[in-house]
């Protein structure tokens, strides 16, 4: 049985992931599982949607399959199927395998002419009261020039350095980068610094979906991790 939360919407040309939860009602052995993506669904990087396994599941156990993808559909499309899930399995006391193929759900599409990603520029871990450089890349998927206003509304756990509000023009199929510096006042799992976009050409409801592509959290340590190595040399007596 395929179960899970209904996907309310999916922004095209933006990275997202889906998770398929499969619940079994008897003791089975899963041999292979593979997701056949729809033509418009493109896996990100080396993401593999096929898995050879020997998972033994008892009655009521659930196994999940996750995949990071982007959807590249036509501008006039309002929804798309994700594809199909194929599982080869056999009962615990069985010899022959059974191949089950089930369709995945269809998802409504949001056609937004811009997308955004956010990353940390420094390779070392983020630490309390040390500068953290955050880079945002805003990319255009439109044939027209778009006027955008970017603003930041940070949580109280951050100090901010940079322009909190900036208006710029995004050229067709071009990208625009914004780099800000924040300083965490406390350690732990903090909300990722969010950026809000507004445009006279795009509705606010559509632009709100662009922030879903940003990381949800930022992990901040109390101090920078370090590795110390101590050598103990044997003593020699002459």
Automatic annotation (TrEMBL):
Residues 156-201 form the TRAPPC10/Trs130 C-terminal domain. InterPro entries: TRAPPC10/Trs130_C (IPR022233). Pfam families: TRAPPC10 (PF12584). One of its GO terms (cellular component) is cytoplasm. PANTHER family: FOIE GRAS, TRAFFICKING PROTEIN PARTICLE COMPLEX SUBUNIT 11. This is TRAPPC10/Trs130 C-terminal domain-containing protein. It comes from Ancylostoma ceylanicum. The gene is Acey_s0010.g979.
């Amino acid at each position: 049985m395929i179960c899970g939360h209904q996907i309310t919407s999916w922004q095209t040309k933006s990275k997202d992931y889906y998770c398929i939860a499969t619940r079994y009602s008897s003791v089975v052995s899963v041999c292979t599982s593979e997701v056949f993506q729809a033509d418009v669904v493109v896996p990100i990087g080396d993401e593999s949607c096929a898995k050879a396994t020997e998972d033994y599941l008892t009655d009521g156990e659930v196994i999940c399959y996750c995949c990071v993808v982007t959807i590249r559909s036509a501008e006039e499309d309002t929804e798309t199927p994700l594809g199909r899930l194929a599982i080869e399995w056999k009962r615990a006391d069985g010899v022959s395998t059974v191949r089950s193929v089930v369709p995945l759900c269809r998802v409504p599409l949001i056609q937004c002419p811009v997308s955004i990603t956010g990353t940390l520029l420094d390779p070392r871990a983020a630490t309390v009261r040390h500068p953290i450089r955050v880079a945002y890349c805003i990319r255009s998927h439109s044939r027209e020039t778009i006027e955008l206003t970017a603003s930041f509304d940070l949580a109280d756990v951050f100090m901010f350095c940079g322009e909190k509000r900036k208006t710029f023009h995004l050229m067709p199929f071009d990208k625009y980068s914004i780099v800000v510096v924040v300083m965490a006042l406390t350690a732990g799992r903090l909300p990722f610094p969010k950026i809000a976009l507004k445009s006279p050409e795009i509705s606010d409801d559509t632009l709100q979906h662009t922030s879903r592509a940003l990381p949800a959290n930022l992990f901040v340590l109390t101090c920078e991790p370090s590795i110390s190595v101590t050598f103990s040399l044997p003593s020699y007596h002459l």
